[in-house]
Design a protein that fits this description.
heterodimer, A: alpha/beta, B: alpha/beta, 2 domains, globular
Chain lengths: ~400, ~325
């Protein structure tokens, strides 16, 4: 019998708020504020709006850390405090760190590359910053943990897959506690990449709406503290909810488009149920990937409508933007809080159902029962992942 | 705990395609493909010797139409996976649940910089979508899943010197959790001029010679007498493995010469990186060396004969990143 895996701490920072409660309050109130990027300049007549984090982020004296890791620290501190864990406790336990990212693992320092191209012979400092800011390695060094460390780079499903991996680490007794989730900062290179794919919206995004015009990028970090049941019991801490199942499957179809029938997503959801004792009828609500791109929402919406016809669905990307490697982490945090509170936000921007997928996500905040929920992620390269959460009785 | 067995090995290295060429190269029977890069640094002009992967046999495994849409690094990964499947004599994948676990420390460097070239040269509205989608770390695994029609779990890890150990750990968890029947566990890096430049300005003695390769281990559970042995301990973290674990090993193959040694008396250390150069995930090549040594019964260039119970360790120690993976028959 594999051990149960409980969530004991949550941390979140995004454009929707600087902590978990701020995020939930603004989403339940329907507030959002995407705007043209201020963190970098782009040479476009009408820059696509983004969701930026507008708070002062932590710094470490005498050390250059990336914005992704500053976002990470913000969420980690909040999650550890809720779980009643400090560095001493983490160092004395078998503590693992498993995080997802996309931007933070890529050597995409544009000023450095421009200087290199211009034969300006840039120094090593920018490379050194890159080498010292892999999120999981950085956090392990910062907290002084000695257990397993992994950074997962599966594009938009990175954090969901990190949480799934963390669950398996705990079930297979590699660790007592794992800090997991994801982090990603807004980055000019990534912004131009999504622009080149013509999937960015010139207006605030409208997940699953018939007239949706694409996604808005965002940034943030979403962190969960996962513990083996016996470890959290011994510590006497409250279980917020349980990670009950995880499934991930590849479409093996196309680099940037999902399989039209959503075959990979269907199998990922099916796999998640197979390694859980939950059934589809237990599901209270779904936090969907819901990027607001034509392709994603049509395929995902069709699959979710097909499998869970009357189950409420929300896309919280309407409030955070698509935070890429952090998305699955933030959405896992929001899913847990909604299971605890019995409330899910409305999907801002959604007005008219798309006849091609038939899914009607929440328009306004809604009360739901607290039994179980799913969070889904679809990624570049055809990865589809699903996490199952069981509410804490 | 299940026994994770290595039943196939596919390699694209500076010695060419296939593990046989790598093994011959380690024994001095073949030479590696190298080139010299002349690099202008703030300290003057430097000449850097680089090792370059030699992907032979692409035509045999990857249709030309498919290759047109793939970066060379992705082609190398797909070639290595095909070679591993062939080595394991798996001709039909129909009834097998297959997972892909890949690792790369630096990711797809050429696609990353090619993408930046497009908007630096032509403006922000002219960035290339093809280069962008190929620049993400998981594009290698995506190309392999598409190329081999593998619909199981696919994941990519990246953690500099701990990358290889993470790949092995994740592959074993895929098997232990009964998510799959076999895993294509691949690790690789590619060269790029920026990497060479960074190497030249970082290492003043030019002892570090950038290298590129892709190695795919085909891993299955509980197989009798696997060709390349079983995976034993996997250690990764900020601390080095316990001395008792180290002392239980018959030999350790280190990832690189300069920073990797652990001073544990009585352990025999081997290092072959002078023959294939340096990558952060060099322990992937150490593990391939260990796997081939277990198969052949000896370590390259050494008279040490391996016994049936021999255990080989492959270490990659570098400051806060420390890993050790052991293999045994």
């Amino acid at each position: 019998m594999k051990a149960k895996v409980g969530i004991t701490g949550l941390g979140a920072v995004s454009a929707a708020g600087n902590c978990v409660q701020e995020n939930m309050d603004s989403m339940l109130s329907g507030l959002r504020n995407p705007h043209p990027p201020t963190l970098f300049k782009v040479d476009m007549n009408s820059p696509f709006p983004v969701f930026e984090v507008e708070t002062e982020l932590p710094v470490i004296e005498n050390r250059t850390i990336t914005r992704s890791n500053r976002l990470l620290l913000c969420a980690v501190h909040e999650a550890l405090a809720q779980a009643s864990l400090d560095t001493e406790k983490l160092q004395n336990a078998r503590t693992g760190i498993c995080l997802g990212t996309t931007v933070a693992c890529t050597l995409n320092n544009e000023p450095y590359y421009r200087a290199y191209r211009n034969n300006e012979m840039p120094g090593f400092s920018s490379i050194d910053v890159y080498l010292n800011n892999n999120p999981s390695l950085f956090l392990s060094a910062h907290l002084g943990t000695t257990g397993p460390v992994s950074t997962i780079a599966n594009a938009c499903s990175s954090a969901t897959d990190a949480i799934g991996s963390a669950m398996w680490w705990l079930k297979n007794d590699l660790c007592d506690v794992v800090i997991t989730g994801g982090t990603d900062e807004l980055c000019r290179t990534t912004y131009l990449g999504f622009s080149s794919l013509m999937v960015m919206s010139p207006e605030p995004c409208r997940p699953f709406d018939a007239d949706r015009t694409g996604l808005n990028l965002g940034e943030g970090a979403g962190i969960l503290i996962l513990e083996r049941e016996n470890f959290s019991k011994t510590r006497g801490v409250k279980i917020l909810s349980e990670i009950s199942g995880y499934g991930t499957c590849s479409d093996a179809y196309h680099m940037t488009a999902p399989h039209p029938g959503g075959m990979g997503l269907r199998r990922a959801i099916d796999t998640a149920f197979k390694n859980s004792d939950l059934t589809p009828s237990d599901i209270s609500f779904i936090n969907a990937h819901g990027t607001a791109t034509k392709n994603n929402d049509q395929v995902e919406g069709s699959v979710l409508h097909d499998l869970f016809e009357s189950v409420p669905v929300v896309s919280t990307k309407a409030y955070t933007g698509h935070t890429l490697g952090a998305a699955g982490g933030l959405e896992a945090v929001f899913t847990t809080i909604s299971l605890m509170s019995g409330k899910i936000p409305g999907t801002a921007g959604f007005e008219t159902a798309d006849p091609e997928c038939a899914l009607k996500p929440t328009k306004t905040s809604l009360s739901v029962h607290k039994k179980a929920a799913i969070s889904t992620s679809l990624a570049f390269g055809g990865t589809n992942s699903a996490l199952l959460f069981r509410g804490s009785a | 705990m299940i026994k994770a067995s290595i039943t196939g090995l596919g390699m694209v290295t500076p010695f060419g395609s296939g593990s046989r060429k790598f093994w011959n190269g380690l024994q001095g029977k073949a030479s590696a493909e190298t080139s010299e890069a002349c690099i202008i640094t703030p300290d003057g002009e430097k000449t850097l010797r680089c090792f370059n992967a030699k992907p032979e046999g692409l035509d045999e495994y990857i249709p030309a139409k498919m290759r047109r849409r793939m970066e060379p690094f992705a082609q190398t990964a797909l070639l290595a996976c095909n070679l591993a499947l062939k080595d394991a004599e798996i001709s039909s994948r129909e009834n097998l649940r297959i997972g892909i676990v890949f690792g790369t420390a630096y990711g797809c460097l050429n696609a990353t910089f090619n993408f930046q070239d497009t908007f630096i040269d032509h403006g922000d509205t002219c960035a290339s979508p093809l280069h962008f989608s190929s620049s993400v770390h998981n594009s290698l695994a995506a190309h392999v899943s598409i190329g081999l029609k593998i619909q199981g779990p696919t994941t990519t890890v990246t953690c500099f010197e701990m990358t290889t150990a993470q790949v092995f750990q994740t592959a074993r968890i895929f098997l232990e959790s009964d998510m799959v029947d076999l895993v294509l566990a691949g690790i690789g890096e590619e060269n790029h001029d920026v990497r060479k430049y960074a190497s030249a300005i970082c290492h003043s003695d030019l002892d570090i010679k950038p290298s590129e390769a892709f190695t795919c281990f085909l891993i299955q559970k509980n197989r009798e007498n696997p060709k390349y042995g079983f995976i034993g301990d996997i250690h990764m973290g900020s601390t080095k493995p316990d001395h008792n674990i180290m002392k239980s090993l018959d030999a350790v193959i280190t990832a690189n010469n300069s920073t990797d040694a652990v001073n544990v008396s009585g352990i025999r250390y081997f290092n072959y990186s002078s023959q294939y150069g340096y990558m952060p995930s060099n322990d992937s090549l150490s593990l391939a060396t260990a796997a081939l040594s277990l198969k052949h019964g000896f370590l390259p260039g050494n008279t040490l004969l391996l016994q049936a119970e021999s255990v080989l360790g492959c270490s990659n120690f570098s400051g806060h990143c420390n890993s050790l993976v052991t293999l045994q028959r």
